[in-house]
Write a structure and sequence with these properties.
Layout lengths: L1 H24 L1 H10 L3 E6 L10 H9 L4 E4 L6 H14 L3 E7 L2 H8 L5 E7 L10 H7 L14 E2 L4 H7 L9 H6 L4 E2 L17 E7 L6 H11 L2 E6 L4 H4 L1 H15 L1
Parallel strand pairs: 1-2, 1-3, 3-4, 4-7, 7-8
Antiparallel strand pairs: 5-6
Length: 263
């Protein structure tokens, strides 16, 4: 019996060595194995009138799911400046990236998403201009021009009055959270809405879109048109524009689904 066992052991080692040799000689298989082992990092891009802290609840949920997460702090002084800030964060990630943009941040990821490390795009009630198009032109094309937000003497558009912030952005957010959101809101340069996208990354990379029904900042019908235009995988929930604050579970779930698909 010992002789038989020895023969089986030798044969098993030979088969194992043969399989390893085949795998090492097959670059496609080796690459596939490497890709399966590579995690996805999440980069979150905030919109106008907010900052990176607006993602706090979503960040906590994504950390619980095991993701490395970084929130960009956009200067909001221009589209170019925001794309630069986002690109710097993308380049610091150790792995491939799923890029997530809320509101104005959608325009930012539409440009920054062309980076070679970006595997997919998630739009959260977000703008998604086409190639060669500005946000202003996009909204005009979709018959949804911005209204009631005039720039100040420094050409900045603010939303720092609590009542207006609640009505436009956060009508379903806990009133106790509103003062904190208003306190960290950041104005955006009016000229940013006239800057054009170069190549819209959603033409080349898979995208997802969270549509918020009842949104007072970006009308739901406009969001549906944007989701259809980009060919995005779509989820629709009842929420204000600040779904990342009022419905962080739904936002984190969509991001997780997208990350799994690109991974």
């Amino acid at each position: 019996m010992s002789k038989v066992n020895h023969m089986i052991s030798v044969a098993g080692r030979k088969i194992l060595l043969a399989l390893l040799a085949v795998a090492s000689l097959n670059p496609v298989l080796a690459k596939a194995q490497s890709e399966m082992q590579k995690p996805i990092d999440i980069v979150l891009v905030h919109g106008a009138f907010t900052d990176g802290s607006s993602w706090s609840k979503v960040i906590t949920l994504l950390h619980q799911k095991g993701y490395r997460v970084t929130a960009v702090q956009n200067p909001l002084t221009s589209l170019e400046a925001d794309v630069t800030a986002t690109t710097r964060v993308i380049e610091r990630q150790p792995h491939d990236v799923l890029l997530v943009g809320h509101s104005w941040g959608g325009a930012v990821i539409t440009e920054a998403g062309n980076h070679s490390k970006v595997r997919g795009l998630v739009y959260v009630s977000a703008l998604a201009p086409d190639s060669g198009e500005s946000v202003g032109q996009l909204l005009e094309r979709l018959h949804a021009p911005m209204q009631g937000m005039a720039p100040d003497s420094n050409s900045l558009v603010w939303l720092d009055e609590p009542g207006a912030f609640s009505k436009v952005m956060a009508n379903d957010v806990d009133p106790g959270e509103l003062p904190g959101l208003v306190a960290v809101q950041q104005p955006i340069a009016a000229t940013a809405f006239g800057e054009k996208i170069g190549r819209a990354a959603w033409h080349d990379k898979p995208s997802w879109y969270l549509i918020t029904e009842g949104d007072h900042a970006l009308p739901t019908p406009v969001q549906r048109k944007l989701a259809a235009m980009t060919g995005a995988h779509t989820v629709e929930i009842r929420s204000s524009h600040m779904s990342l604050v009022s419905h962080p579970d739904a936002v984190a779930e969509l991001i997780d689904q997208a990350a799994r698909m690109v991974h």
